[in-house]
Amino acid sequence: MVAPEYSIVLDIVGLEVEHLNSGLVPNIAKIANDGEYAKLEPVFPAVTCTVQASLLSGKYPNEHGIVANGLYDRNAYFVSFWEQPSSLVRAERIWDRRNSCTSAVLFWQNTMYANSDIVVTPRPIHLDDGVVMWCYSKPVGYYEELRDKLGEFDLASYWGPLASPRSSEWIANAAEYTLEKHRPNQLFAYIPHVDYSVQRFGKSDARARDDLKKADDIVGRLVQKTSELGIKDKTQFIIISEYSFNDVQGAIPLNLVLRDAGLLAVREIQDKEYLDFEFSKAFAMVDHQAAHIFVKDGFERAARKILEATAGIDKVLDSEGKKRLKIDHERSGELVAIAERDKWFSYYWWHDEKKAPAFARKVDIHRKPGYDPVELFVDPKTKSIPLDASLVRGSHGRPADLETGEGLAFYASSSKHDITKSGIAKCTDIIKCLAAA
């Protein structure tokens, strides 16, 4: 096969092979049927940062080190989520194999300072009197150029109670502009909005189906753009989703479980309780349906016993279990917990909501020691984020199950590649499909 001159890789969260025959995604179905498609086996945990790092490097988490959407700094006693520096990924990614190939990457994770010709990724600047809606870009000033052409990127449409397809539409417009002006050999664009509706409403809800249609419209527009530019016959489209969803009913407050067992410590400051990383014998960095449990020496057996006795937890991985799932990395917790299919993990540690830190009721993705999908909702009475984990209807992250099909995502390419076995493509093989200039 002659390698195409251009590749456009679209990461559309929540797509599944079953959607091809639904009538919702005709543009995606055409690409799939004209080329090839398969169910995609994500790496574990099937969460954004981890899967994206594997897609772009061809490596597993025990090699590239992105074991979750968050990181725990054992030296600084600090958890942070959604950190963006490219150097956090300890593996070569596709744009590092430069040759004469030019690349543009729009809104993928861990791309600040990446070795790509063009980068755009959200990086709001937090000031005492508000937030500057800014995006990091390379070359310097490219976001400002896009802003002048497309309008400011609205961070509220990207995450939080106002998250909507507007974020994906802006990214798609940026992709069209980038194609027209720079014509990169490889363009990567993240289309996130289906993620929001499935977490809010569940997989089968009409609003999630409507968002799939909108994602398909974006694909159609980008295909049309390549026609207008006269490069359609030279371009391969690769469409992937990072994971598929499970419908869920209820969350497990892992840190509260550990607190009640005497393993987690809190400090009370001005009548609010904060997790005490220094003196906790064990605490959980939660991420959808997976959680890293960081345990002090001598308390692993006690922590594991408590977790295994907790309703809603499916498995607890020790060192051997982590090796089997290729999550055995120094950044991983001593234990890794996996929720049952219809449950997810919340980060909560308080008994009394009045004791919850102020950031619990805000969209505050960096200070919470866990991913918080409840940030997609708002309490109409208080105009703040509620503390009601039962609102969440969709989650993900568990290991894919090849027998039942649980967790299998989506891969399609307008070109044919030999990466599928019995209709299954591995996340780490997608890198083989990308064309070199």
Automatic annotation (TrEMBL):
Matches recorded under Pfam families: Phosphodiest (PF01663)
Organism lineage string: Archaea, Nitrososphaerota, Nitrososphaeria, Nitrososphaerales, Nitrososphaeraceae
Highest taxon in the source lineage: Archaea
MF GO annotations: hydrolase activity
Name the UniProt record assigns to this protein: Type I phosphodiesterase/nucleotide pyrophosphatase
SUPFAM superfamilies (alphabetical): Alkaline phosphatase-like (SSF53649)
CDD domains xrefs: Enpp
